[in-house]
Amino acid sequence: DGITQQALALLLGRDRASVTRMVDILEAQHLLKRMADKNDRRVKRIVLTREGKLLKTKAYRAAEKSLEVALKGFSKTEQNQLMTQLEKVIRNLKS
């Protein structure tokens, strides 16, 4: 359950120091917490708190509504083409 800080840094494409700062802020806001790994107590796993899970749900709902508005009038084919193009943009930005 949860994700390690190192894995989170890789997922976000950020260095570990900036992820640590972000985690510190979110932990202070009681949105997540660090927990010892079951297999290696030196490793800390980042898990959402109850408040964090509620905020995640609200954020997903808001994102879905925004996406519906943004894609209004697009056919499924056009939506798929757009997603393909945006994925290329993201890959370009990461390289």
Q: Could you characterize the architecture of this molecule?
A:
It contains 4 helices and 3 strands; from the N terminus they run βααββαα. The protein is α+β, with helices and mostly antiparallel strands. It is extended, with a radius of gyration of 17 Å. Helices cover 64% and strands 13% of the residues. The chain folds into 2 domains: 46 residues, Arc Repressor Mutant, subunit A; 32 residues. It has a 3-stranded antiparallel β-sheet. A hairpin with a 7-residue loop joins β2 and β3. α1 crosses α2. The mean pLDDT is 95. The two termini are 30 Å apart.
Which shape, going by the Cα principal axes? extended
List low-pLDDT spans.
none
Number of helices: 4
The SSE string, one letter per element, is EHHEEHH
Distance between the termini: 30 Å
Q: What is the structural class?
A: alpha+beta
- What's the CATH class of the largest domain, please? Mainly Alpha
Percentage of residues in DSSP E strands: 5-15%
**Strand sequence of the main sheet, in spatial order?**
1-3-2
Going by CATH, the architecture of the largest domain would be Orthogonal Bundle
The largest sheet, given as strand count, sense and whether it forms a barrel, is: 3 strands, antiparallel
Q: What integer value in Å does the Rg equal?
A: 17 Å
In percent, how helical is the residue content? 55-70%
Q: How many domain units?
A: 2
In CATH terms, what is the fold-level topology of the largest domain?
Arc Repressor Mutant, subunit A
- Number-wise, the strands total 3
| Overall pLDDT confidence | 95
